[in-house]
Amino acid sequence: MPQFTLRQLECLATVGQEGSIAAAAAALNLSASAITGALNELERVLNTQLTIRRKAHGVSLTPSGRYVLQEAQGILQASQDLQQMAHAAGTLLAGRVRVGCYSSLAPTVLPELLAAYSSRYSQVEVDFFAGTQQEIFQRLANGTLDLAFVYDFGLPEDVERTTLYMTEPNVLLPPDHPLARSAKVSLAQLAEEPMILLDVPPSREHTEALFEAAGVSPWIRYRTADFEVTRSMVARGLGYAVLVQRPAADVSYEGLELAVRSIHPVTRRVRITVVRAQSVRPSKAAAAMFDLALELHPRR
């Protein structure tokens, strides 16, 4: 039988997530000495150094510590599944799932998914986070997200990816713009027009790649970090934008009309993917959300 305990693994996992013994102690409602003792005993039992502890600099994990942390997350998740489902003989899904989504994708992907999941698995607590893809990848790596929905662009190697659906970028124009009279617009036609760039990775990199492939240098007049601000600026006649996501109504947040046109020739399509950390075993609740996402988007 293993000589380490689930509590010791939980302390290691929490220290890895929080970055310090004091923060881990607060998160687990334990004393700092109890956390330190658990880490010391775990290192003794495993006969390896797991952490590097520096006063005023927090705690970092050694290579062995990162490996044990990855394995510990799976063990802790399996133990939680067992405890939560034992009373119902495994017939009732319970527990908690933490889902992330790239911010501009969130209004398109999350509401339908969360509504369907809550209806089907009412006993599961769902937390979600919308932010940049870099923030999402960090949270997947440290175990604070179970799965996430992102663009298949610049993904790290340590994530498992599955295509959810495909989409194409469009050009947004003010409704009275001369190019709005055409059903399709080429990127070359936009070269002399002022552009409003959604300056958030990976949207920025994707847009830059589109223009580079077309041999066009855009005139970037404004940069924004918000999807709706970008659309509102276009509706006000301040320039055009290239965006991937398209809301159901072609109006800005202010209620002003937008002209949305296809790009010609057809640019490369964009993959919307669901990603999970390769090193972490998904909980039953997280696996159920993954399956439901694929069910709701059969175009994969």
Detailed description of the structure:
The chain has nine helices and 13 strands. The chain has 300 residues and is an alpha/beta fold. The protein has a five-stranded mixed β-sheet, sandwiched between helices. A four-stranded mixed β-sheet has the order 8-12-7-11, with helices on one face. Strands 1-2 form a two-stranded antiparallel sheet. The radius of gyration is 23 Å and the shape is elongated. The protein starts with 5 loop residues before the first helix and ends with a helix. The mean pLDDT is 88.
Q: Helices, strands, pairings?
A:
Layout lengths: L5 H13 L2 H8 L3 H15 L4 E4 L3 E4 L1 H24 L8 E8 L3 H15 L3 E8 L1 H9 L5 E5 L7 E9 L2 E4 L10 E2 L8 E5 L4 H12 L4 E6 L2 H9 L5 E3 L15 E5 L6 E8 L6 H13 L4
Parallel strand pairs: 3-4, 3-5, 8-12, 9-10
Antiparallel strand pairs: 1-2, 5-13, 6-13, 7-11, 7-12
Helix pairs in contact: 1-2, 1-3, 1-4, 2-3
Q: Into which percent range does the helicity of residues fall?
A: 25-40%
What kind of assembly state do the chains in view correspond to? single chain
Biggest sheet, spatial arrangement of strands = 4-3-5-13-6
Whole-angstrom Rg: 23 Å
Structural class: alpha/beta
End-to-end separation? 44 Å
Largest sheet: 5 strands, mixed
Strand content: 15-25%
Shape descriptor reads elongated
What's the number of extended β-strand segments? 13
Which whole number gives the mean pLDDT? 88
Give the low-pLDDT segments.
Answer: none
What is the succession of H and E elements? HHHEEHEHEHEEEEEHEHEEEH
Question: How many alpha or pi helices?
Answer: 9
